[in-house]
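[SOLVED] Need 3D model of a three-part complex

Original post:
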Amino acid sequence: MADQALAAQSAFSELKPVQSAALSIEVRDGLTIASIAAGKGKAADVRAVMQKAFGIDLPDRPLRVEGGGISVIWHGPDQWLAIAPRGAGDRDLESELAALLDGIAAVTDQSDGRAVVRLSGSCVRDVLAKGVPVDLHASAFASNGVAITHASHIGIVLWQIDETPTFEIALFRSFADSFAHWLAHASVEFTAG
Amino acid sequence: MRFNCPCCGERGAEEFVYHGDAAATRPDANSPTAMADFIAYTYERTNAAGVHRELWYHAAGCHLWLVVARNVMNHQIISVARARDVALAQTAQATCGAQSNGGT
Amino acid sequence: MPFQRHRMPVGGLIDRSRKIRFAFDGVNYAGYAGDTLASALLANGVKLTGRSFKYHRPRGIMSAGSEEPNALVELRTGAYREANTKATTIEIFEGLKASSQNRWPSLAFDVMAINSLLSPVFVAGFYYKTFMWPAALWEKLYEPLIRRAAGLGRASAQSDPDTYEKATAFCDVLVIGGGPAGLSAALQAGRSGARVLLADENATLGGRAIDDGADIDGLPAAQWVSSAITELASLKNVRVFKRTTVFGAYDGGTFGAVERVSDHLAKAPTGQPRQRLWHVVAKQSIVAAGATERPIVFANNDRPGVMLAGAVRTYINRYGVRPGQRAVVFANNDYAASTVASLNKAGVDVVALVDSRETPSEGVRAILNARGTRLISSAVISSVSGKLRVKGVTVRTADGRTETLACDLVAMSGGWTPNIQLTTHLGGKPVWLDAIGSFVPGKLPPGMSAAGAASGAMGLRDALESGLASGSAAARAAGFTPAASVVPRVENDSSAFAPLWRVDGGRGKAFVDMQNDVAVGDIELANREGFRSVEHLKRYTTLGMATDQGRTANVNALAIMAGLTGKPIPETGMTMARPPYTPVAIGAFAGHHRGKAFKATRRPPSYAWSKEQGAVFVETGLWLRPGFFPRAGETDWLQTVTREVNTVRNAVGVCDVSTLGKIDVQGRDAAAFLDKLYMNGMKSLAIGRARYGCMLREDGMLMDDGTVARLGENHYVVTTTTANAVKVSQHMELCQQWLWPELDVQMISATEQWAQYAVAGPKSRGLLQRVADPAFDISDAAFPYMQSGVISVLGGIKARLFRLSFSGERAYEIAVPARFGDALIRRLMEAGKDLGVCAYGTEALGVMRIEKGHISGPELNGTTTPHDVGLSGMVSTKKDFIGRVLGGRPGLIDPDRPALVGLRPVDRTERLRSGAHFLGRHASATAGNDEGHMTSVAYSPSLGHWIGLGLLKRGPQRTGEIVRAYDPVRSGDTLVEVVAPCFIDTAGERLRG
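Solution:
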């Protein structure tokens, strides 16, 4: 069947990667993403299962946790996004988590619904300020903080990875090119010349 | 305007969608007065000049419905609460009330 | 012309080592870096800069800041040309080109100055009076005439070649204005560790401390300013925005500001915008925006060479420019002292100080005495002589004697008006302060304070003190602990003032609002005609309605009207402002959102492939969907759409339907929840089956339709229409969170996860069998109409298959993870070649649904009920659901309501048009005879003629009747026959296979 396998297409057809100390922009393809929504009254059970399986405490505030080979992004009350590289083994978090959380949470595949881009460097906050109306200053936003908001009117989930700072942004796939167009505009002063 | 979303923190009004009055509770469709009740529920508003309790949706954020007390005279936001919590508390209160009224 | 002959040999903050060449009205000049166009023109002796709005009176430079009403010019050329820019705020750059406005053929000789002679015609309200009759001439004659005669600069009429951007900034304390008060406030708050944002509209900070040439801590103010700037720059928590105007205050501590990033440069540096619009979110704000000097209202007070006294000081102290050779100072306040001192310093001959008061204070007299300068007290300037520039003034003393003084500069000061605009944007009412003859901020919005001259603290020491105090208070309110403040050693200059609102009896017009050419006579006329309230005065005379919102005019006008009506000024009205404080380019508001980026677009998974095929796209909400796929040789869209429809009806077609909203609904109460949302039952839906469903609004009207598929006991997938996906999702969240929070339901949007294609036509199963993995049986027995299931395709790619049909043919919808969407459509096209497969777009989709009588957007228009569109049979009577009760209102179930029918032209060659209204065959075309309208039409390739769907009164009972489809807008009047709303395969045999 190998000859029949379909080629995967990146959500971003127009995003130009950038690589400098001031700013780097990189598409994060090849992720497996699943949303977890705890059943009514089952949040504690979901937390316990996830603690046991991955050694992580699911956040109840807009924060990101990492451990046991996955990272989990707060995504609303009793809702999370679990993310991991699909990797050579073609990992599929939906089926993995659905089995673990059967009966206590709704698990839905979002691997293709979301396009993810990583931004890093000393000028990232200045770039993001041109579209993201959230205070990302170190005194206001945790180094593992999460925000569900918008960038230039495009809905996003944003999370901070480290204090470089590095951020990742997930957006609905169909907006990827409009987002890339905005990002190019917002970052041109740091990439020009 | 800025709303202090109980989940996301303070955000600008552009992230929120206004729905309408949060004062009314959906009537019982099987009541003999259902038609009049639903007409009141859907259409009748006092539109007072002062504080309104309104439903707002954090559309560009956590997708939570919020009950916002807002002074429509000056856009002052008095309180923001999760609609789910407000609704559950109202139900609890109504149940409590019914029990104590009918208590034997 | 001698080079900068009016430049002082030393002084000012300009950089004399950098000569800048520029041109005004085609003449080349030079100035220095740090000059504004106004200061550079004055340095070169240019006083005449433009013609006025209505009377074409010669005008010059009156002020030195953003309040300038007169010196408006066209800046730059070609597409870059910008009208009505203030010469007083433009920083010169190498090669700058500016030209005067509103004159022809030249500035010195302007034909339209004849308007001045016609001035009796152009008085207040002239629009309403002069051109009343005959009305027919208004558009053709009067308006073009007025437009040509009056007006200011010309827009370039070309697309704006500059780039703009928008950004958000957060701070604990926003300080608006970088004069002495603002700098003190920013320092005090910044030292406490608070995040401070200091914005000043000018290129350099310091404000009037520099303009007035004062000393602070025993040093020239400029040194104090520069050390303050150095300290601010050393604080990491402080950001200083120069050339940035905070133009509006909005609710919740938000502000609009525009940063002129590159306006002072010949060309924006690579990567930099021309301007950046800031949305500032501040916990606390301090308005330290200073004050604006008022002109005095006397005859010919608009002549070039009549300037505000404070501006004269600015040109001398900031720019090292002598604005004239022989000056008369005219004032009603003690600032005259520093004006005379500055003129002395610049070597300008001060002919006299004309003071309206009996006795100016000691300080003023001391400065006059030092040089033996003449004081004429209890006196006024009653008029100015000279036309293109001041030649002299007539001075009148209290006893009525007059005297003429020769001069080329009048430095006038009627007192100062605090810049309180930002404190009134949210409705804050200012209060009158007699001591300064102006309004000061009243009750301020939460988190806002005012400092310095903006708050009425006019003296330098008071300004510094109030700045420090506001800075401390704001930092404390934002949660920081400020240190005790130390006020620099400085004395207050005397701000003693006695009102003088107008000077009567001079020959010539005495202007109140220079930019809109409103003279004192216009206010008198308004009073005589009863337009006395400030709102009427404004609209009748246009006072304060120019681009400067009457910054130099409003208080004088109020005072003059108060004098006419005998009422106190605060009772006459007050000066409330709206954003923006100064005009902001529309481009700045648009930012990046122009052209292609006007709004975001959403691309379906087949976008790239469709583009390769030459598809013509249509916008559905934000989505770009292929409308149709023209092929070589096809001459119009109808030909293409006809081919696509025929292909689906006879072979197989593929259409990207990924844009439909897809919501995953899970939980133990999922079924019960959906039963409350849909008008038909969903609990009874078997696992593996799908059902068409409609949601109503609570008022009983149809909201949306789609399919519901049950994947498991507690797992459904519902689809919404493309257009309503967001609305429905929001509605479902409301139901779950607010109406029925006790239910156990989880909803997740999965719209974007799946690339979903409709595969439709008699050969659709054959095509699908070529991609579905063989383990899955999709025969009609195993996979009948309305079946749904999880399968895999092409060797293990997970997929969802639904047997649904919008076209009326045997059809499926196949969904794969979106990253495979592009590859799948390529594979389907390749695999179906021998079957004659083609892609079809939304046009063919629309044609086929009309042929089948399926409702869509034009029928789901917010005013239709299930009954109206023939779906009353679907409405459950066994359960409560949203819209059930109100949907039963008598008016909504009235059989007389327009209801869905099919229509075809009696003459089959005629085309139909949607939007046509139905009339009885012999009824006249009046609104009373209206019987509904045509909602959707299409040319039916299957039938070979036009068909339509419509909502017709008692429609379903009128089959066979002939009615008029009347469309006066497009001259349509067609006889149509009423038929059942289904034109193809009425028994539905094809879709079941």
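Edit: The radius of gyration of chain C is 38 Å.
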